[in-house]
């Protein structure tokens, strides 16, 4: 049975290149498949299980269309169905010849407990054909595979490169800095980890990572979210004073919370303006489904390079 389609969803909402791939189908079938792909892309972040249902239905109706197999592979990945995702992404690669989703494929191998195969994908000749964002995502997965194998030193090496000097606010930059900081912390290099968590936080305009929280933990602070504002305070409340001096207020100079906020503001001020726009999840795994015919950034691997838990 087909999952229900909202009445306001049309085939025209699908990316033009993907619609072009669907032209090999009868017109009525192409319209149905396109609408299910639109819904799958729209639901991928908020309700991945329902997104998966729509993508799999599209696959059943058009399994020989590369863009459809890409969409179903990404949807299967989003719900932790590693083997199914890997099969779909391999099929998509055979059908359209694109290597866009190598990072997802490598992460599926990790999810299946095969980090060695993940490294084979990461270091294969096809990886040299990727753009910088896709290469970085693949390196993050490779780093995670090294950690799976108990080798954090090698994991750190996987992440090293000129991209660590990038200062523009791009989605892959925040994830690279975060992954690098996480490995540094595992190696006991806390000061360097703090620096890269701070850098990740500074360029993470869309909240792709929890770098703020990780940085706060290292500095012994807590983050309180009050609407659009974030307040940093000491993790341990100070002992209440017996009395307050007349020339001081509780929030005056010397207040731990105030100093923490000022420190954070200084870090923000020192961060150069980013010229690139950030997008959720490497232009989002959601965009990967909607724009499955494009070769934009394509990995949804977790920030620290660790795969999600597989679901039944």
UniProtKB/TrEMBL annotation:
Q: What keywords are assigned to this protein?
A: TPR repeat
Please give the superkingdom of this protein's source.
Bacteria
Where is region (Disordered) located? 225-312
Compositionally biased tracts (Acidic residues): 285-294
Under the heading InterPro entries, the entry gives: TPR-like_helical_dom_sf, TPR_rpt
| Record protein name field | Uncharacterized protein
Q: Where is the composition biased (Basic and acidic residues)?
A: 303-312
Question: TPR repeats: which residues?
Answer: 174-207
């Amino acid at each position: 049975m087909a999952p229900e389609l909202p009445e306001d969803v049309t085939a025209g909402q699908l990316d033009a290149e993907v619609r072009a791939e669907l032209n090999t189908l009868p017109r009525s079938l192409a319209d149905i498949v396109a609408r299910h792909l639109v819904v799958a892309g729209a639901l991928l972040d908020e309700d991945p299980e329902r997104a998966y249902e729509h993508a799999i239905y599209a696959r059943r109706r058009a399994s020989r269309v590369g863009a459809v197999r890409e969409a179903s592979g990404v949807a299967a990945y989003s719900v932790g169905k590693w083997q199914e995702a890997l099969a779909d992404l391999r099929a998509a690669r055979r059908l359209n010849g694109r290597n866009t989703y190598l990072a997802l494929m490598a992460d599926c191998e990790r999810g299946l407990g095969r980090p060695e195969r993940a490294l084979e994908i990461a270091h294969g000749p096809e990886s040299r054909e990727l753009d910088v964002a896709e290469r970085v995502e693949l390196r993050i997965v490779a780093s995670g595979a090294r950690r799976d194998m108990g080798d954090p030193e090698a994991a750190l090496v996987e992440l090293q490169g000129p991209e660590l000097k990038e200062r523009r606010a791009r989605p892959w930059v925040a994830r690279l800095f975060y992954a690098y900081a996480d490995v540094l912390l595992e190696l006991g290099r806390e000061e360097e980890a703090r620096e890269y968590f701070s850098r990740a936080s500074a360029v993470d305009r869309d909240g792709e990572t929890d770098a703020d929280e990780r940085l706060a933990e290292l500095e012994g602070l807590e983050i309180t979210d009050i609407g659009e504002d974030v307040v940093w305070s000491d993790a341990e409340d100070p002992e209440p004073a017996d009395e307050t001096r007349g020339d001081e207020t509780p929030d005056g100079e010397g207040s731990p919370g105030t100093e923490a906020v000022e420190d954070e503001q200084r870090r923000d001020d020192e961060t150069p303006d980013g010229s690139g726009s950030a997008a959720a999840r490497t232009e989002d795994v959601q965009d990967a489904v909607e724009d499955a015919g494009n070769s934009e950034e394509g990995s949804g691997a977790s920030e620290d390079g660790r795969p999600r838990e597989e679901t039944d």
